[in-house]
Structure formats: C-alpha cells, structure tokens
Design brief:
Layout: H1 8-18, H2 40-48, H3 61-77, E1 84-88, H4 91-104, E2 113-117, H5 123-131, E3 134-138, H6 148-153, E4 159-165, H7 177-184, E5 190-194, H8 202-207, E6 224-226, E7 240-244, H9 248-253, E8 255-256, E9 266-267, H10 277-313, E10 318-320, E11 328-333, H11 340-348, E12 354-356, E13 361-365, H12 372-389
Parallel strand pairs: 2-3, 2-4, 4-5, 5-6
Antiparallel strand pairs: 1-7, 6-7, 8-9, 10-11, 11-13, 12-13
Helix pairs in contact: 2-10, 3-10, 4-5, 10-12, 11-12
This protein binds ligand 0PR.
Length: 392
C-alpha cells in the first residue's frame, strides 16, 4: 500500500489503462454472456442507495418493505401474487437456497436426492456438493428436449426434490414443467424451477403472443422459482432472485439472527451483509419500464435472434442446434465434427461466445446490448471461418 494517497484523476487514469483489456458490451464482442449493461436509470438509482444493507433489515425498514413489494409485483407476472422470496447475488445463490430448503423439508430422508435434467446449471452441482445431496441427472433426447421417461425413472423413495428449467443455460429451452408437475403431484416432493435466465423473458414473450408452455406458479405443483434481475431484467450486477409459493416454509426452514436491530426474523440468505441498492434499483427499473418497456426490449432481442438463426441456417457446414425458444442461439456443425476449432477462430477475432463441449455447440445469448450491425459482422466472420476450415 502507498504511504501517501494519489490524486483522484491519477487513479482514474491508471484504472482506465488497467481495465483496457476488458471486453465491453457496447463493442458487440460479448455474444455469449447472460449479463448486459444495466439500464442507465437503474445505475443512477443504485449509486444513490449503494450503502443500504438488507443484512440488517431492522435498520432499513423502507428498503425491506420495498423488497417485499417488489417480490409480490414479480409474483404477479409469475402467476401468483401472494408469494415470498428474497433477492440474492445471482442464480447460483438462489438455486443453493432452493436446494437447502429441499433437504430441510425432508429430514426423514437420510440420503437426499434431487432429480434434474443433465442440462441444469453447474450451480446445482455446487449446491449438491455443499449440502450432501445426490443429484440424479436425466438425459436429453436427440433434439435436446428432456427425456421425461428417463426423468420419471430416476425418482425414488429418496427423492426430496425435482428441478425443471425454464431457459436452459446452453440453449434457452423450456423443460416440460407441467408434465414434471403431474409426475410429482400428490407426492411430498419439492418442485423448483430454474428460470434464472427465462424469468424476465417468458412473461413478456407471452404478452407478445409467443406460444409459451406453462412454467411458473400457474403450474400447481411448482414450489419455487429462481429468476435473476442481472440477466434479462437489466438489473445491476449482482442481483438474483428466489421466489417461493408457501410462506410457511420460511418459518420451518429459515435461519434466525436474534441480535440484529430488527431481531427475531427469519431469512433464507447464505450471505450476511446484503445489498439493498441492487433491489431498489430493480424496483425502479420495473416501475420505469413497465410491461410495455420489457416487451419492447424482449421483442428486439427476439427479432435479432430470428435474424441470426436464419443467417446461420444459410451457412453450409454449420446449423442451429435447436430452434430458439427464446433469445439464445446454439450453433453446431452439420457433420458432427467438433465445434471447438470454429470457436477458437472466433475468439481470435474477439467474438466471445459460450462453448458447451458436452453438446458440441457454441452459444450466442442475444442480449439487449447486441445490435444488428454486430450480428452482420459476426456472421461475416463466421462464414469465412467455416469456409477456411472446410467444415462441410
Ligand atoms: N441458472 C441458469 C439457468 C443459468 O444459466 C445461470 C447462469 C445460473 C443459474 C447461475 O446464475 P449466476 O451466474 O447469476 O449465479 N448462466 C450463465 C452461464 O453460466 C451465467 C453467465 C453470465 C455466464 C455471464 C457468462 C457470462 O458472461 O452461462
């Protein structure tokens, strides 16, 4: 550490230089991220309220009330206004909270198991590792849809929870939530939906008259949902969300911290100190955009998705891994050859996509920061690379 502090201007200059190597959203290079530039107004609000700490909600009663208000507003678009929940650092923490509840609710099961699709996000592996849960992973069919028969066959007397995904990490696909719901109906099995990505896309796609299968609290057996503001909610990083139908579960499974200012309240959080600013910012973003604002953003992303999908299908040698259901496009080779070389070449040209070697696909997430001009340039490079590598 320096003995004497530097001038602010000098520090800012050094920072600018040091961070020059970061990719930026506006450059269009970031094609494989589920995060994006937060809404400008959200950033302003966040800066204003950056010191709010919901780790001690008794000190920040207004912020705590705002969180509750926001949760019920989100519940409204997820098919059940009367829910509880909490904002988290992201989808991983939300999924961890869900998996902890799954285990806690079934103390009678000594070797807890959770059944989920193989396409589930890595956060479930982390949660299972931390909680001592065994994961049973169901296969996908050749078209990347969940193999429901296999899923059902993995459920046994040790199953305390099942997971469905509304917006898979690799392809943005939606599992057959209603069918999973029917399988576990009348059984004491917790049903968690991971809509970390889809949560703030699907309600608006439905409003735009896309055919969206039921995935949220409208499906009776759904117990909880993960949905992240810092993905398609345009929220400030980090902000995830966990939403729960049955409020009594908080009393049964929540942690209690009696010494805090508010005293004797229960909560689900893994973290202690918890940002209020990101939540206040998301409250403001939702108020500012309204349903119509989100519809407009999602529509633009979907128009770009369809444009990219069409252009991909015109290139010999590569093809779409699946028809996009939301703004995620998976690209694979036509002849089954590895996609890795194409990805390497794309990276050399600064196109940063997600790579899923298990499924041999590269992924573009058509976030709001990607504009048509970026896609045109990307396609141009991709076409040249495929030709050069002679993947036909
Ligand atoms: N659930 C699903 C379905 C997800 O896709 C993700 C993350 C999570 C949970 C976990 O969310 P957090 O990362 O908020 O904990 N999906 C992205 C992915 O792994 C995350 C991401 C974001 C990756 C930005 C890259 C990136 O630049 O692909």
């Amino acid at each position: 550490m320096l003995e004497e502090g530097l001038k602010k201007q000098e520090i800012l200059k050094i920072l600018e230089k040091k961070l020059k190597n970061d990719f930026t959203y506006e450059s269009g290079s970031i094609l494989g991220s589920m995060c994006t530039e937060p809404l400008e107004f959200g950033k302003q609000v966040y800066n204003k309220y950056i010191s709010k700490n919901l780790g001690d909600p008794g000190l920040f009663l207004g912020t705590a009330a705002l969180e509750e208000e926001l949760i019920s507003e989100i519940g409204e678009i997820f098919g059940e206004q009367n829910i509880i929940g909490t904002f988290t650092t992201g989808g991983s923490e939300a999924n961890l909270i869900a998996m902890r509840i799954v285990k806690k609710l079934r103390p009678d099961i000594k070797k807890p198991e959770v059944v989920l699709p193989i396409s589930a996000h890595i956060s479930f592996d982390k949660a299972a590792d931390l909680l001592g849960i065994k994961l049973r992973k169901a296969k996908l069919k050749a078209n990347y849809d969940l193999d429901l028969t296999h899923f059902e066959s993995l459920i046994n007397k040790n199953t305390c929870g099942v997971v469905g995904i509304a917006g898979t990490t690799s392809l943005g696909l939606i599992d057959p939530i209603e069918d999973i719901g029917k399988i576990i109906e009348e059984r004491d099995i917790f049903f968690h939906i991971d809509a970390a990505f889809g949560g703030f896309v699907l309600p608006f796609l439905k409003e735009l008259n896309y055919e969206i299968p039921p995935w949220d609290f409208t499906v009776k057996s759904v117990s909880s949902i993960t949905a992240d503001p810092h993905k398609m909610g345009l929220g400030v990083i980090p902000s995830g969300g966990f939403f729960l139908r049955d409020a009594s579960i908080l009393q049964k499974t929540g942690f209690e911290i009696p010494y805090l200012a508010g005293g004797n309240f229960k909560h689900f959080h893994i973290v202690g100190t918890r940002p209020g600013g990101t939540i206040i910012a998301f409250w403001a973003i939702i108020k500012f955009l309204g349903i119509n604002g989100f519809k407009e953003i999602v529509k633009r992303c979907m128009d770009n998705t369809q444009y990219l999908a069409k252009r991909i299908s015109e290139i010999d040698g590569i093809k779409l891994a699946a028809d996009p259901m939301m703004n995620v496009v998976g690209i694979t080779t036509e002849n089954g050859e590895s996609i890795c070389e194409i990805d390497d070449e794309l990276r050399k040209k600064n196109w940063m996509l997600g790579k899923f070697t298990d499924f041999n696909l590269i992924r573009v997430v058509m976030m709001p920061h990607i504009v048509r001009e970026h896609i045109v340039k990307f396609i141009d490079d991709l076409e040249k690379i495929v030709k050069k590598l002679k993947i036909i």
